[in-house]
Design brief:
The complex is a heterodimer. Chain A contains twelve helices and twelve strands. Chain A is α/β, with parallel strands linked by helices. In chain A, helix 4 links the parallel strand 3 and strand 4. By secondary structure, chain B is of the alpha+beta class. In chain B, 46% of the residues lie in helices and 20% in strands. In chain B, strands 1-2-3 form a three-stranded antiparallel sheet. The chains are: A alpha/beta, B alpha+beta. Chains A and B meet through helix 9 of A and helix 1, strand 2, strand 3 and helix 2 of B. Bound molecules: pyridoxal-5'-phosphate (PLP) and FE2/S2 (inorganic) cluster.
Chain lengths: 383, 127
Amino acid sequence: MIYLDYNATTPLDERVLSEMLPFLKEEYGNPSSIYSLAQRARNAVEKAREQLAKLINADPKEIIFTSGGTEADNFAIKGIAYANEDKGNQIITSQIEHHAVLNTCKFLERRGFEVTYLPVDKYGVVDLEALEKSITERTILISIMFANNEVGTIQPIEEIARIAKKHGVYFHTDAVQAAGKLPIDVEELGIDLLSLSAHKFYGPKGVGALFVRKGVKIAPLLQGGEQERGRRAGTENVPGIVGLGKAAEIAKEEMEEEEKRVRKLRDELERRLLSKIPEVVLNGHPQNRLYNTLSICVKYVEGESMLINLDREGICASSGSACTSSSLEPSHVLLAMGIPPEIAHGSLRFSFGKFNREEDVEKVSDVLPRIVEELRKISPFWE
Amino acid sequence: MLEYSEKVIEHFRNPRNVGKIENADGVGKVGNPVCGDVMVIYIKVKDNKIEDCKFQTFGCAAAIATSSMVTELVKGKDIEEALNITNRTVAEALGGLPAIKYHCSLLAEEGIRAAIEDYKRRKGSDD
Ligand SMILES: Cc1ncc(COP(=O)(O)O)c(C=O)c1O
Ligand code: FES
């Protein structure tokens, strides 16, 4: 099998698993209890908090563990909205956010908040002028993703943070796709809140974190016990958190090497597919893009049919085609970038990771042109 | 990935009657308003019988499989019989479709109807 869908999720790193195992077995203590079994669980959670804080250059006290990226996004947006209602009711985000952000914003819109969805250019970059213009007296939060999951475009985070700061508005970034892949320094970049998720960088599913800068006024999403210093109630997912910490430590250490290796593979596949298949367009920013992501639109063919044929060859990829989504609408990201629906129909995303090798590039660049050729024979638009 | 029946996958992988018919007696071009797929069906008619039928489809695996199946179903049938073919007939012949994919089989039904209407219209103007 050739797995090329690392933006969807990643396999667990063996070293992460080894670190987690004791906490799935004999180290089952509840971190809130008194005895030494519990103390060990508590220490493990705090160690993970430090490991994660180092990944993004935060203070461990600024890390709150969650059940994943979705909860972190919900927490950031609803938490800021509810805690700052006295200051205003406007939230600014972009049209290409993940649904964890978009649907949270829509939910708040129905409850009296005002949301501005910023447009993006053809590469998927947020319009900074539009951002600055849309800020009002009532703006309480700007939430713009670090890197896009579908096309990989990286946003000008530092500039956005600067604009937010200038206007005294909190800045949240959904860094679920960037964390573990790119170096992130929340201090240097001036980020107030940041979401991340373990399963996108070889950690377990169902665990993530929200970084909340010291002094930021935020309301908890969950009410209950005093865990996470009263900001996220519920007995900690100790094995998950331990896994997240270890995954963060490994990512920090190996990121640079991984980037070099993976970028080469991605670039090579990009070069080959663009030259071997006629009428293919590259999606996302040509340079400012996640080094592991390759998103293309193959004209006159549909994504699902390509995916099924790829799957037959043991290749796992994804598509933003309407036919592959349960809503039967094409990807909102591609549409926001101005790609017409019929072209978005033929979108394919290959996202690379740790276990990809050159042979994978060989195989895909061998197989896909044939698949496209066959499907185009059926297409009424291909002559 | 969606759970398609073996029959759907088989027709998707080896679609029957792909292509255009030059000098077709009827051509039906239909689009799917739900997701934007397009199907073109060509028929050749002799003595009120569909002698040949071909298709071109830009769409998902279900759309391709239902196109393929509908061309098989109508071949050799009278015009009236062919008009009785519904999307259900096509879906059933394929061993069923995932719920979300039923709309794709509608395209096949509409495609064949459109081709027959086109045939009737042309015939009418010939007379
Ligand atoms: C950009 C982005 N945000 C949020 C999420 C949701 O994260 P999780 O799956 O951990 O809930 C994802 C994962 O698909 C993502 O890619
Ligand atoms: S034709 Fe689009 S889902 Fe089948």
